[in-house]
């Protein structure tokens, strides 16, 4: 009976060990399956995060390129504008220097002589030029002009003058600003071409 008992104990141990081994194998298989699923999900998430990071980096690169191109265009436009302003300022300075009292007197005398006999004339100049021209024009025109010439001060004029028939409020404009405006029509296309 002892042998039967030993054999029965041995069988129970063997069946228990087999069952435990099967149970352990099943737990291991389930754990491996779960681990594989977790690894697969983690890889999918990592891949998704990598693709999103690449897409974000590409979008950032494109935005940066667009911003750089826009900044370059803006810089070119500002530079063109500044160069144009500098050119106009230099031109205005040259015009202002050229429109000295001697040239003003010559131009006014020519125009007054051309309009001799057509009535009274009015010349608008700045205060500084009015003082310098007053006596000279009166002397020069007294023999050539049949009518009067009024020399009036216009504080809006920096250099040059406006001339017209008295009382008509219609003047021919020979101020530095109007001369610059006339030159601008011809010079701006050339300047724009040079800046290209």
Structure description:
With 196 residues, the protein is α+β, with helices and mostly antiparallel strands. It folds into 2 domains: 1-98; 100-195, 2-Layer Sandwich (hypothetical protein PF0899 fold), CATH 3.30.2320. Helices cover 76% and strands 10% of the residues. It is built from 4 helices and 4 strands, in the order H-H-E-H-E-E-E-H. The chain has helices at 2-98, 101-114, 127-144, 176-195; strands at 121-125, 149-153, 160-165, 172-175. Strands 2-1-3-4 form a 4-stranded mixed beta sheet. Strand 3 (160-165) and strand 4 (172-175) form a beta hairpin. It is rod-shaped, with a radius of gyration of 49 Å. The protein starts with a helix and ends with a helix. The mean pLDDT is 78.
Q: How many runs of DSSP E, i.e. beta strands?
A: 4
Gross morphology? rod-shaped
Structural class: alpha+beta
Strand order of the largest sheet: 2-1-3-4
Low-confidence blocks of residues: none
The total number of structural domains is 2
> What is the average of the pLDDT values?
78
The number of helical segments is 4
Radius of gyration based on Cα positions: 49 Å
Helical percent range? Answer: over 70%
For the largest beta-sheet, the strand count, sense and barrel status come to: 4 strands, mixed
Straight-line distance between termini: 115 Å
Order of helices and strands: HHEHEEEH
Strand content: 5-15%
Keywords, please?
196 residues, alpha+beta, hypothetical protein PF0899 fold, 2 domains, 4-stranded mixed sheet, rod-shaped
Write the layout of secondary structure elements.
Blueprint: H1 2-98, H2 101-114, E1 121-125, H3 127-144, E2 149-153, E3 160-165, E4 172-175, H4 176-195
Helix pairs in contact: 1-4, 2-3
């Amino acid at each position: 009976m002892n042998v039967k008992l030993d054999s029965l104990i041995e069988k129970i141990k063997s069946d228990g060990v087999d069952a435990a081994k099967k149970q352990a194998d099943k737990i291991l298989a389930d754990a491996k399956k779960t681990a594989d699923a977790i690894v697969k999900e983690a890889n999918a998430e990592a891949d998704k995060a990598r693709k999103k990071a690449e897409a974000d980096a590409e979008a950032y690169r494109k935005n940066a390129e667009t911003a750089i191109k826009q900044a370059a265009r803006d810089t070119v436009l500002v530079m063109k504008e500044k160069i144009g302003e500098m050119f106009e300022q230099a031109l205005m300075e040259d015009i202002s220097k050229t429109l000295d009292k001697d040239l003003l007197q010559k131009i006014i005398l020519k125009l007054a002589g051309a309009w001799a006999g057509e009535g009274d004339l009015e010349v608008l100049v700045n205060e500084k030029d009015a003082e310098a021209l007053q006596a000279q024009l009166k002397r020069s025109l007294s023999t050539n002009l049949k009518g009067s010439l009024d020399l009036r001060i216009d504080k809006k004029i920096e250099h040059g003058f406006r001339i017209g028939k008295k009382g008509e409020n219609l003047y021919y404009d020979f101020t530095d600003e109007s001369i610059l405006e006339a030159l601008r029509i011809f010079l701006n296309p050339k300047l724009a071409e040079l800046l290209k």
